[in-house]
Amino acid sequence: MQRLTGIAAADGIAFGSAFVIDRRRINAPKYHLQPDELDAEVDRFRRAIEATDLQLQRIKEKLYWAGGEDHTLILQAHQLILQDEQLVEQTIRHIREDAINAEWALRRTVTGIKRLFDQVEDDYFRERRSDVDFVADHLLVTLTDKKPVHVDPPPEAVVVAHDLSPAELARLYRCQIRAFVTEVGGRNSHTSIIARSLAIPAVVGLSEVFVSVGTGDSIIVDGFRGEVVICPDDEVTRRYQRRRDRRSKSARVLRREQDLPAETVDGLRVRLLANIEFADEIPGARSHGAEGVGLYRTEFLYLGRRTLPSEEDHAADARRVIELAGASPVTFRTCDLGVDKLPGPMPLSREANPALGLRSIRLCLERREMFKAQLRGLLRAAGSGTARIMFPMVSGVSDVRRARALLAECAEELGAEGASVPEVPVGAMIEMPSAAIIADLLAREVDFFSIGTNDLIQYALAVDRTNEQVAHLARAFHPAILRLIRQVVTAAEACEIPVTVCGELAADPAMTLLLIGLGVRELSMNALAIPQIKRVVRRANLEAARQLAERVLALSTASEVEEQVMSALDEIFPDGGHRPADDDTQF
After folding, report:
1. Catalytic residues
2. How many CA atoms, within 13 angstroms, populate the side-chain half-sphere of residue 160?
3. What's the confidence (pLDDT) of residue 332?
4. Is the pTM of this model over 0.85?
5. Which superfamily is assigned to 2-20+153-253 in CATH?
6. For domain 258-572, which CATH number applies: 2.40.50.140, 3.40.50.620, 3.90.70.10, 3.20.20.60?
């Protein structure tokens, strides 16, 4: 018996027999060419791109008709990567300048692109490396003319692989696998995102898994904790079964309440919204109780392209989001990009510290035409529903005024062109300490606030969340963070504008009672967290929450605050309903 710990990628506990798929690397030929062979090799490479694009299109169509229409955008992104100028032109350059075959040239290009991704600070964008690998593997299979041999696992197997592409996972899902485990990958990879939406338990980043497991071995996958147990004995199996049963019971309780209003026992209504990245996430978010979209990340439109998205691209995407949301509100965050997120069609100079560099609203105000294309597209789509526009990384009043002036310019242009342009509420993300400190001034300039707690904590506490040596210092209960939140809420109340918390704090049950007490009335989060947060709201008392907030604002340390908050939650959840349904599964 052996236990391995990796990254919890998709919730759930699964038991089954391992089915090992070992395809860690496609064997590609490497040879030099004669000068008169180079043109033919470039033509062969271009034909392979066309053939691979057709293959991806067919996979996308199969996924759609099999009921996976929610994820066709991810395969569309792979098609865009396949046509990316850097991937294509750099490979052709290697063929011509180094006189090498297309497979070898492609490997060199992909290695260089992945080195760039390794420098990205943002977890989500850093994990796009796997998408480049998946596309390159498809292309290599086409170039080598070696058809992949798919051996389908038996139903209810647990798949163990080096990595899985979204297309492979879609195929395995139809085989009714119980879970999967991979050597590489991260929680924010596209494969992990799809696993969560398909409710397939998954653990990724298990570097030693191939050394430890073979096909047919009994295996337990704990997607909550990121644990995998190989060849468990009977006692360990029983412990995990008890944990799974407790989790299932807790989920049933949450499902019974998911259609009930998020309302405290004394009648305060709290709006629970979803943070999303793709339009097709909206139906799932609504099924979890989301009352709208509190944060729609528009960056996806910029990635994997040879050119910047056009006004029509923005308008079409926004219309689809609004259409799927129906009468529910949607808040569009304008593009939050920088050199660390590598927007292919918009080359930027390298920066020593991208987190403090030319990014988000700063970049948009520098690249006016790019920004105007997005604003015009959003305004054109806004008339079909309840839309709001929000500017990220605002540092002061001048940022808001300049952005609003550009928005007004776009509205005037569209009006002159005969378009009907509605009044769209405009908001500011409060994620920089400077914005929180002058929230009273910013509140006079906008229609709403949204507190981005992830960056607010990072900037206020000077903690790099990706640095394992200091990440533990990024504590939401830090008195400075709580005081900044209170300051922002007070400023919003004075100007009678709403304020939403849309960072990870919103999805933390331990913070829910405290945020209500601090005056927050809207929370936006990963949709999967909504049922649990609603349960806390429905058992909260507004006056008790206010008293808790007043007490903790007088405390000196994060540990003291956390102790008070957990004590208050234990009082309203004597059965421990606010805590994970776990026991100490040890062996």
Report:
1. 190, 502
2. 25
3. 97
4. no
5. Phosphohistidine domain (3.50.30.10)
6. 3.20.20.60
